[in-house]
């Protein structure tokens, strides 16, 4: 994922109130819901005031509350693969599932959308 052609930028929540040109160059924000001295929903609100429609992925170890209704939320703990899938999904670049090897009916059945949505 880190070698997938993405530029990464780390911004500490304590300085998120400062406006600079960095916000204009972001494709996606990944933020925790609860942080020392700040929270993800407030950070998202500030950033979207400057950049409406900015995709944001929230991560949390708690049940998402009303502040996250309609938002993309990834529950902790998660694997790097799950994080990668969530990031690609928020960017609208969800990869197509790999085709099951010939004769592997179990994999074919597991990859059906009906089972993945359950």
Set out the fold topology.
Elements: H1 22-25, E1 29-32, E2 34-35, E3 38-39, H2 40-50, E4 56-60, E5 72-75, H3 80-90, H4 105-110, H5 113-117
Parallel strand pairs: 1-4, 4-5
Antiparallel strand pairs: 2-3
How does this model look, in words?
The protein has 118 residues and is an alpha/beta fold. The chain has a single domain, classed as 3-Layer(aba) Sandwich (Rossmann fold), CATH 3.40.50.2300. Helices cover 31% and strands 14% of the residues. It is built from five helices and five strands, in the order αβββαββααα. It has helices at 22-25, 40-50, 80-90, 105-110, 113-117, and strands at 29-32, 34-35, 38-39, 56-60, 72-75. It has a three-stranded parallel β-sheet, with helices on both faces. It has a two-stranded antiparallel ribbon with strand order 2-3. A hairpin with a 2-residue loop joins strand 2 and strand 3 (38-39). The longest helix is centred in the middle third of the chain and has 11 residues, at 40-50. Residues 13-18 have low confidence and may be disordered.
What labels would you give this structure?
118 residues; alpha/beta; Rossmann fold; 3-stranded parallel sheet; 31% helix
Using the alpha-carbon principal axes, give the shape: globular
Query: Can you count the beta strands?
Result: 5
What is the fold named in CATH at topology level? Rossmann fold
Give the averaged pLDDT, no decimals: 75
CATH class: Alpha Beta
Please compute the radius of gyration using only Cα atoms: 17 Å
Could you state the order of secondary-structure elements as H and E?
A: HEEEHEEHHH
Low-confidence parts, pLDDT < 50 over ≥5 residues?
Answer: 13-18
How large is the share of residues in beta strands? 5-15%
Q: Count of DSSP helices? A: 5
Number of domains: 1
CATH superfamily: Response regulator
What profile does the largest beta sheet have?
A: 3 strands, parallel
Helix content: 25-40%
């Amino acid at each position: 994922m880190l070698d997938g052609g993405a530029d990464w930028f780390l911004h500490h929540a304590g300085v998120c109130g400062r406006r600079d040109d960095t916000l204009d160059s972001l494709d996606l924000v990944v933020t925790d819901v609860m942080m020392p001295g700040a929270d993800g929903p407030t950070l998202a609100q500030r950033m979207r005031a400057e950049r409406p429609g900015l995709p944001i992925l929230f991560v949390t170890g708690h049940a998402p509350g009303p502040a996250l209704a309609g938002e993309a939320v990834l529950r902790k703990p998660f694997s790097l693969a799950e994080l990668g899938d969530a990031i690609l999904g928020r960017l609208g670049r969800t990869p197509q599932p790999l085709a099951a090897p010939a004769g592997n009916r179990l994999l074919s059945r597991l990859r059906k959308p009906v089972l993945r949505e359950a």
